[in-house]
Structures are given as structure tokens and as C-alpha cells.
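WARN no homologs supplied; continuing
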Amino acid sequence: MIVARVHGRTCPTVPTPSRGGSLSHMIKLFAADLDGTLLNGLHLTDRTILRSIARVRKAGMHFSLATGRTVRDPRQLGFQKNVCVVCGNGSMVLGEDGTLLRSHPLDQAFVEELVTRFSTEPLEFITTEHTYHLQSEEAHRAAYSHMALWRRVVTRGMSMTGGPEHVYNCTPAQIAALRVVKINAHIAGMGRADQIHDFLNAHTDVATNAPFDPCMFEITAAGVDKGEAVSWLANHLGIRDDEVAVYGDGGNDIAMLRRFSHAYATHGASDDAKRAAGNVIGSCITHAVPHHVVRTLRTQGSLA
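OK structure emitted
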């Protein structure tokens, strides 16, 4: 497997052995973004991915999804209940048994002001249990169908239409009363999007926007991101940051890739993500992340 170094960072492909032959920092937690990273070219799980996770768990290590998607049950995406979940860009953390370990809500006054000023926009307000919409289900589906095909494929996991998890036709007052952990939006037209950007720039003390794509909004509380959440999860599991390997490809992965010394971007990652990681592995199409995970286990002697 080829790994390229970016802008002088010297983190190797896998943790390096010490002179005595044992690894100085054994990786005990692997955390991977989904789309463009862990999932295959069709944005799905498959046998190669699931087998690599099973080998991590058999070795006594941990695996976590680290995604902007809302994943209240990893089985919805084809995973088994043997993974931790950092989702909503770090606003929610689930244990391997599906238990909600932590959630970080947005400032309620901020949510109230945003929903009042932009009540006609297709905003999605995410809580630990449901996703709430000001618009109808029909309007939500229509907005979704107007996206470019590739964006619909990626965002389907962030915003699956219908189902018991979604609540439609909410009023601004109902939204303002919720414990919202993340707000998603795809705004058509730069004028209105610019207004939301200006609003967010005036509220950087309480909120941050870290979308996977520039056309999207993915708003969480200030200080909440995948890197902070994965570090919290590692500490919860009794694992140090230098015992964590992370993988990503997009804008909402940058904080995570910068935070950890063992960080890897996929071949199709954004330039910013590649610079943040310092190391570039292959493509999700060729299962670069699952192969890298197994190689790391083998190198550190964790495979039976």
C-alpha cells in the first residue's frame, strides 16, 4: 500500500516499532469518516469493510464511525453493533451497545434566533431522538430531489426522508423548545446562503459550521467537532490520543485529522484534508481504509 507524505509531516504509514521490536504506540482505537473514506464507492458497507472491523474487535481494539451523518443505530447503514459512533460532527457519541454516551446541544437562544430569521429555509434540526423540519415531508423530498445526483447519494444518510425519526410541519416555537444538537441545510442560491453565513459569523462564540461540502451547512455548538469527540471517546475507553488512528476526506474531518498524530486522508480527499492529515492512502473504491486498518493490526502484532 502506498502512502504519500504531505507538506513535510513525517507520520509513517503505521506506528513504528521501537528498537526492541514492540510498537511504541499501539493503535487501540480506529476512527473513520464514512463517505469517501470507509464506505465503498457506492457509499455502502460491504464484506471487506465489515471483516476489517470484526478483526479490530477480535484483537481487543475498538472501532468508531466518525461522521456528519445522524446515526442513531449503525445497523441502519449495514454495520453491526460492534462499533462506537461519533456522529453529527461530534455532537453525539454512542457506545458499542448503542447507548448514548454524550450529546452536546446548541445554545437555545441561538437556535431560536436562527429559526425565527430563516423560517422559510429547508433547515433540519437534529436531536438525539428525532430530526425536526419546518417544512412538510413533500417539500423536504422535493428539495432533496433537486440536488445533484452525487450530492443526493452522500446526503441521503444525513437526511433520510420520512420514517419515524423525522417530524414535519413544526413551528418555530416548537423548534426553539428542543434540545438541538445539530442543524443541517442545503441552501439553493448564494444570496440566502450568504445571509446564513453572515449570521453564523456573528455567533462564532456559540456555534460553528463545518460542512463536508461548501454548499451545505452543518452547524454544531462551538468547540464541537469530530476530533474533540473522538478524543473524548478515546479517554472514555481509557485510550490516549497517540493510540488513535483516524481517517477522513472532507471539510468536517479537518479538525480530527489535525488533532491526531496517526491521521490519514484518502486519495480523493480535499487538499485541506490531505494537508491536515499529512499522509494520503488509496481510494475508498479500493478499500484503502479497511486494508490500512488490517495492515496496522498486523504490524503491531495484534492479529492472532
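The chain has a mean pLDDT of 87.
OK
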